[in-house]
Write a structure and sequence with these properties.
Largest sheet: 12 strands, mixed
Order of helices and strands: EHEHEHEHHEHEHEEEEEEHHH
CATH superfamily: Aldolase class I
Strand order of the largest sheet: 7-8-9-6-5-4-3-2-1-10-11-12
CATH class: Alpha Beta
Structural class: alpha/beta
Bound molecules: S-adenosylmethionine, iron/sulfur cluster
CATH topology: TIM Barrel
Radius of gyration: 20 Å
Number of domains: 1
Number of strands: 12
Distance between the termini: 27 Å
Number of helices: 10
Helix content: 25-40%
């Protein structure tokens, strides 16, 4: 890993030396999926029966780190590790250590369902991980099983407590809200997070899972806010409120905590999108909903070709579309479901 390939202004491939698209959006945020496997089957994310990738198809930690180095040379400074369930990937702290060793990466985080967190949290922290997002859609064991198709709520809660004790810089909870399924969980989850000083982020349900998506099942941001304001406490835009950020941040008026809402459907943030993605088997995607992707694997194996990877990333981002168009008749659901892309 000895090639910080930094492109410079005037570079014929990238005028700015950054991953900039034709709409002027600069991309500094890379989401890396480390596996397509999962120990849950959340119904909004993946099907019950899946053929997983062969282990040999997954990028190795060395390969991921080398690709990350190339991306860093193009201005990436934020990385999120995700999956499938990233904690199923053996020795994940080794990758965390590689990535925290890249000085330009100022923000490394991990999204997990928390099932295996309790036993791994210490090693992750020791490897340098400072920020964690744990997905939790309900505090009710029955609804957990209904949504995730497996048991495991207790393990997730134990994982959260272990992470709190470990003293991470930032712990967030992610909750996907589905009308008629877990709207009744919004208030208990809000109280749970507030009592632990954890930021809770609600995510509008997106058409990226295995099941047919229904718009009328989306619990919209304004509905979530209304539930919280009438049943928990008044909210106002937080000090860090940034209308261009994916998550709208709100603070409780009583000073006890904050929430975020990722309103991908009712308030798409495509206009300000700064994200690109690398799948577990090495496909580079310029959008969660992209219909096309670039296969970096032939540029990684048998020989690592940093300059070709760099060109592939630049040209993929240059070709990025304006937005996902979920709210139009033009929307086409990608062939991949969320667990094979990385959320
Ligand atoms: N397995 C890990 C987890 O669940 O946190 C990481 C991968 S998961 C794909 C990343 C995030 O995507 C989770 O917070 C999950 O709730 C979210 N997600 C999955 N399918 C979604 C959908 N259809 N709409 C909105 N968010 C979704
Ligand atoms: Fe697995 Fe995460 Fe998808 Fe649930 S949301 S099935 S935990 S990858």
């Amino acid at each position: 890993m000895s090639f910080p390939l930094v492109s410079s202004p005037g570079d014929p491939l990238s005028k700015t030396g950054l991953l900039q698209d034709s709409f002027g959006r600069t991309h500094n945020n890379l989401r890396i999926s480390v596996t397509d496997r999962c120990n849950l089957r959340c119904e909004y994310c993946m099907p019950e029966e899946v053929e997983f990738l062969d282990h040999r198809e997954l990028l190795t930690f060395e390969e991921i780190s080398e690709v990350a180095q190339v991306a860093v040379g193009l201005g990436i400074n934020k990385i999120r590790l995700t999956g499938g369930e990233p904690l199923l990937r053996r020795d994940l702290p080794v990758l965390v250590k590689f990535l925290t060793g890249i000085p330009q990466i100022t923000d490394l985080s991990l999204t997990t369902n928390g099932l295996l967190l309790k036993n791994q949290v210490k090693k992750l922290k020791e490897a340098g991980l400072r920020r964690l997002t744990i997905s939790l859609d309900t505090l009710d064991p029955g609804r957990f099983r209904q949504l995730c198709k497996r048991d495991g709520l207790d393990q997730v809660l134990q994982g959260i407590e272990a992470a709190l004790q470990e003293g991470f810089e930032k712990i967030k909870l992610n909750t996907v809200c589905i009308k008629g399924i877990n709207d009744q969980d919004i208030v208990p989850l809000a109280e749970y997070a507030r009592s632990r000083k954890i930021e809770l982020r609600f995510i509008e349900y997106m058409p990226i899972g295995a099941n047919p998506w229904e718009r009328n099942k989306v619990l919209f941001a304004h509905e979530i806010l209304e539930i919280l304001e009438t049943q928990v406490a008044k909210l106002f835009p937080g000090a860090a409120y940034d209308p261009t950020a994916p998550a709208m941040e709100f603070t409780y008026q009583d000073g006890q905590g904050s929430i975020g809402i990722i309103a991908s459907i009712s308030r798409p943030f495509c206009q300000h999108c700064n994200r690109v993605r690398l799948t577990a088997e090495g496909k580079f995607r310029n959008c969660l909903f992209a219909l096309e992707e670039v296969d970096l694997k032939p540029l990684i194996r048998p020989d690592f070709q940093p300059e070709e990877i760099r060109k592939a990333m630049i040209s993929s981002v240059e070709g990025k579309w304006e937005g996902h168009e979920i709210n139009t008749a033009r929307f086409i659901k990608p062939g991949r479901t969320m667990h094979t892309i990385g959320g």
